[in-house]
Design brief:
The chain has helices at residues 26-31, 46-62, 102-112, 126-135, 137-141, 152-160, 177-186, 194-209, 212-225, and strands at 16-20, 38-43, 69-74, 87-93, 113-124, 165-172, 228-234. By secondary structure, the protein is α/β, with parallel strands linked by helices. Helix 4 packs parallel to helix 7 and helix 7 (177-186) runs antiparallel to helix 8 (194-209).
Length: 237
């Protein structure tokens, strides 16, 4: 499930991409299909990095042919082990809402981005996320979970205050919002509840088959129900 639209990053051969908070490697798999790129996935969770390594290699073997190189690195977003201006593009998807010191995290992303480079950030959208918090205390109090809900102006202003320019924005994954509302109603850990399990099967089918009708519905509903807000910034040259 890809949240970032790579076409909006204007990726070119020979460029370097950082996926900060790469998790299981979903955005690495997508970025490596671009010719001549080098993609570094970084995450603080060692177990997630191990899963990412396995899944990326599996995708490399059976998925769309890779045209780029990749590597994984254990790192904290609060202290990235990279020199200033190391990457042409930085991706940070569904991470900032977990970080208490988000100003320091944003500063590290800015520091490692080259002048003229692009930054893509996604966070849970305010309206769908607010419903999740209202439906379940467990959802918003899970250790390592979400520590805030970002209004659009707040997350945009956080990065604009560093000197980045917002160039584009969109919303993603509208079909996933009802799934998370059902999970919160049933209990975030209760994946066996009948409505939750049924909706999960639907989402898996949709992800694998990509039927035109659900793709059209997702695009139509994203401005209203999109689970994620996706922002694209440019660093001054």
């Amino acid at each position: 499930m890809i949240t970032i639209d790579y076409n909006r990053l204007e990726i070119r051969p020979g460029q370097k991409i950082l996926d900060m908070g790469c998790g299981a490697g979903r955005h690495i798999c997508g970025a490596c299909t671009r010719p001549g790129v080098t993609v570094v996935g970084a995450d603080i969770n060692i177990a997630d990095l191990a899963t990412a390594d396995e899944r990326i290699r599996l995708h490399e073997q059976y998925g769309e042919p890779y045209q780029g190189r990749w590597a994984l690195c254990a790192a904290s977003i609060l202290e990235l082990p990279f020199a200033d201006h190391s990457f042409d593009h930085v991706i940070c998807s569904e991470v900032m809402e977990h970080i208490i010191d988000d100003k320091k995290a944003a500063g590290e992303l800015f520091r490692t981005l080259k002048p003229g480079g692009s930054l893509a950030v996604s966070v849970p959208r305010y309206f769908p996320e607010k419903i999740c918090w209202a439906l379940s205390e467990t959802y918003c109090n899970t250790p390592g979970g979400h520590v805030r809900i970002y209004p659009r102006k707040q997350i945009t202003g956080l990065f604009e205050s560093l000197g980045l320019k917002l160039t584009r924005r969109h919303w993603a994954h509208s079909l996933h919002s009802p799934y998370w509302w059902l999970k919160c109603l049933a209990g975030p850990e209760n994946d066996s509840a009948a409505p939750v399990a049924a909706y999960h099967r639907f989402l898996t089918w949709d992800l694998m088959k990509k039927p035109k009708i659900t793709r059209a519905a997702d695009r139509l509903l994203n401005p209203v129900l999109g689970k994620s807000l996706v922002l694209y910034f440019r660093k001054a040259a």
